[in-house]
Amino acid sequence: MPISELEILLRLLLAAGLGALIGYERERHGQSAGLRTHMILAVGAALAMTLSINLASGSGSDPARIAAQVVSGIGFLGAGAILRYGTSIRGLTTATSLWTLAIVGLAVGAGQYLVGAAAAVFLLIILSLLDLIEKHFIHSRIQVPLVVNGKDDLLRIDALEALLKRHKLKMSNVFVSKNIKKQTVTLRVMVGMTETTPIEPLIEDLSTLHGVHTFQLGEPSAQS
User: Fold this and answer.
1) Domains, the chain
2) What is the pLDDT of residue 82?
C-alpha cells in the first residue's frame, strides 16, 4: 500500500529532528559536517526510502534497491569528512555517524519509527558519553610535527629526546637533514601530545635547547 503524502511529510520531519540531534553534537565539536549536513542527510535518506516503497508498491519491485544505493553512496560523503593532520586522522567518528544516520533515515522512511529513534538516541549517547570518558580518562594522543633548526655540532637528537622525556612526551618518525656548507642541522620529529599537554613550558625549554636557532611546533593552518 502506498504511503500518503501526509505520512511522508511526518516521516521527513521526524528524520530531520533525529538528524538535528546528531548534527548538533558534531557541530559542538567543531566538525565541518554539522547540524545542516546531518539534517539534510537524514531527510534525504528517509525520502529515498519512502519513494522506494511507493514505487515498489505499484510495480512489485524490491523496495530495498534504492536503500542499498543510499548505503553505498554515503561512503563518498563520509570520506569527505575525514581529514589528515600529519600522521593523525580526524573525522572518522563523524564519517561513521553520517553512515549510521543514513540508516536511521532509511528506517524512519520505512515506518520503523521506534527503531530509528532508538538508534539515533543510542548514537547520541555514544558520541556524548564516550567523548566525556575519553577527555577525563583516556586523553587520546595526536601526533604533532616538531621541526628544530640549529648548529650542526651543537644541536643533538639525543638532547632533544631527553628534553621531550622531561615533559613526558615521546617522539617518533625521526628525520635529520644537514647543510654541510652552512654547518646547520634540521631535526624533524613527530611528538605524541594530548589536549592537556602544557605547551608554554615546552616552548620555553625548546628555546633554550643547546645549539638551537629556530623551531616550529605544529603545522601552520591553511589560509583560505
Assistant:
1) 5-138 (no CATH), 142-217 (3.30.70.260)
2) 54
